[in-house]
Specification:
352 residues, alpha/beta, Rossmann fold, 3 domains, 15 helices
């Protein structure tokens, strides 16, 4: 829907008043009405780096979800304040791994006698607590754009990886890019005793995948791929690695949101594409490339409801509050958590 002109003007005025004091980051899944005010846009890896590269901005307004704002707080200086325009913008995947559950899992691995061989690799889409656990146990963070490099690094440090919390990114990377088999992966279910696994299964596994997933990408199925291939002959299927393994296996291209955008930019005029990721992004790239046929992979619409919580009214409220000197919706990670989480994030930023 077109943005309310009054709100657009208010956002512009507040941003102008704040000047260099504010830096607005926008994830690719954000609404158009919000993205128009982003100083930079990106996938979660790029935004983490961009946040860290702005030490002069007093306020970082993060148009994205909670775990991204936490990561920005961890990577910025103590004087910088990170603001999330709507505190209800969480991530259901990140919520699937709590600190208690992960500590319990580590006990299970310890009892099975394998904890010393295990290196945790946590997807960016996790709480600061999980990132701190990862840093404490010698592991790294990864995003959808560097998961293979993170796993390569982890398997230089140890024999097994505990991959949190997205089973699909873990499985897809291991099988598609690392030469592992589905049998090398086991699924740890935090709601079952011992994760629902036997000691033998844990000892035999190379990848211990946490049973988490993205509800948005989980909606794409093999049928969605087969249907679109039938409907649009010659279509290229391009999906995000948070999709299920069977979807990724049937796709032609797989990559992060930034990769999806770059691939479509480079695609020849007249080419046909079906995209398996969040709808705001798919619509935006389709509008940006009218010379290419770009469709959404599934027939049913698929926004990320929590990403969509950041809308223009919330952004205006946050910017106007900051312009009036009221610090609202600050995301602040406590120091102890921050120090260990930073270790894990810095390992990621240092990956080759
Ligand atoms: P990327 O932006 O890293 O591709 O991640 C997608 C996502 O689900 C963010 O929540
Ligand atoms: Fe979380 Fe999925 Fe939304 Fe990304 S798209 S924020 S992983 S629920």
């Amino acid at each position: 829907s077109p943005s309310d002109p009054d709100l657009v003007e208010r956002a512009r005025a507040a941003k102008e008043k704040l000047g260099d004091k504010v830096f607005v980051l926008g994830h690719h899944y954000q609404r158009d009405e919000v993205i128009q005010f982003a100083d930079v846009t990106g996938d979660s890896f790029k935004l983490a780096r961009d946040a860290a590269a702005r030490p002069e901005a007093e306020y970082i307004v993060f148009c994205g979800v909670h775990f991204m704002a936490e990561s920005a707080d961890i990577l910025t200086t103590d004087d910088q304040k990170v603001v999330l325009p709507d505190l209800a913008a969480g991530c259901s995947m990140a919520d699937m791994a709590t600190a208690e559950q992960v500590a319990e899992c580590w006990d299970v691995l310890t009892e099975a006698g394998i904890a010393e061989q295990v290196v945790p690799v946590s997807y960016m889409n996790s709480s600061a607590d999980i990132k701190a656990f990862t840093g404490k146990h010698g592991g790294t963070i990864c995003t959808s754009s560097n998961a293979k490099r993170a796993l390569d690094w982890a398997f230089e440090q140890g024999e097994k990886v505990l991959f949190l919390p997205d089973q699909h990114l873990g499985r897809n990377t291991a099988v598609r890019e690392m030469g592992m088999t589905l049998e090398d992966c086991v699924l740890y279910n935090p709601h079952k005793p011992n994760g629902g696994l036997t000691v033998e299964e844990l000892r035999a596994a190379k990848m211990i995948l946490w049973r988490g997933h993205c509800s948005v990408h989980g909606r794409f199925s093999l049928d969605s791929v087969n249907d679109v291939r039938e409907r649009i002959p010659g279509v290229n299927v391009l999906v995000h690695p948070e999709c299920k393994h069977e979807v990724v296996a049937a796709a032609d291209y797989v990559g992060s949101t930034e990769y999806i955008i770059k691939t479509l930019e480079a695609a020849p005029a007249g080419s046909k594409w079906a995209i398996g990721t969040e709808l705001n992004l798919v619509r935006r790239v389709a509008n940006a490339h009218p010379d290419k046929e770009i469709v959404f992979l599934d027939k049913t619409v698929c926004f990320c409801s929590t990403m969509n919580r950041i809308d223009l009214p919330h952004l205006v409220w946050a910017l106007e509050s900051l312009a009036e000197g009221n610090l609202v919706n600050r995301i602040q990670v406590d120091r102890e958590t921050e120090s260990f989480a930073k270790l894990a994030l810095e390992r990621m930023l240092a990956l080759p």
